Every structure is written in C-alpha cells, then in structure tokens.
Task: structure prediction
Amino acid sequence: MMKKPKKAVRTAVGVSAPLVLAALIFVFIKFGSPPCLFHSATGFYCPGCGAGRALKALLELRITDALQYNVFFTLSLPLAALFLIKLYVWFVFDKEIMKRLKITDKGAVIYAALLGLFFVLRNVPVKPFSYLCPDVFL
Result:
C-alpha cells in the first residue's frame, strides 16, 4: 500500500471524516441533492442522474425506489462503502482489514465499461432500456 501517514494526520482524519460524513448526510436530508447540470445542458441522463433520489430512498429504507432511481448507483454503493471502510481503518488505525477486497486494473476497467454501458443504455428511449431512466418512476 502507500506510505504510513503520521499519527497527527491519522487522528485528524479519524475524527473529522465521520463528522464530515454526518454533516453531508444532514445537509443532503435537509436540502436534497442539486440538479444534474449535464442533464440540464444536454437532455441526456448521466450515470449519476437519480443517485441523489436513490440515496435518499436508501436512507429511508425504500430499496425498490432506490433501484428504480439509479440501479447502478444503488448496486455499487455497498461495495464502495466497503472500500471506504477498508481505507478508513487502514489510514486511521494502521490495520489492514478485508485483505481479499482489492481493486485490480482489470476490475476497474470492467467497472468503467459497465458504467459507460449504463450511461448509453439509460438514454435509449425504447423499452426495456427506458426503465433505466430515473424520471420514469416519478
């Protein structure tokens, strides 16, 4: 992995990261997510369109709604959370957990290809692809 960070930096991140995350969740719940600039400018849905609504639905435990708003984001979130937890524990506590959970070059390329495919397919105005559009369920 990377070079071991200094103890003061690890402590600052250990304390501030959960506080920043809590503040972001509070602001998100209070004010919602901003509109998508890409969609506003082009009329096409980016891979992140509907992710804000999906996250809000997940926070309210409405998993089906979250999947309808952005299936790719919703299915990616647990894995992203595991990677962030792994990185947090390594950085703050200098302990490696979930050693088998790694991002390989091949895995990153596959994920990027799936994200690109999702981007293209959700903008095809034909069923069943139109179901990937976040506004279909409003």
Q: What stands out?
A: DSSP finds six helices and no strands in the chain.
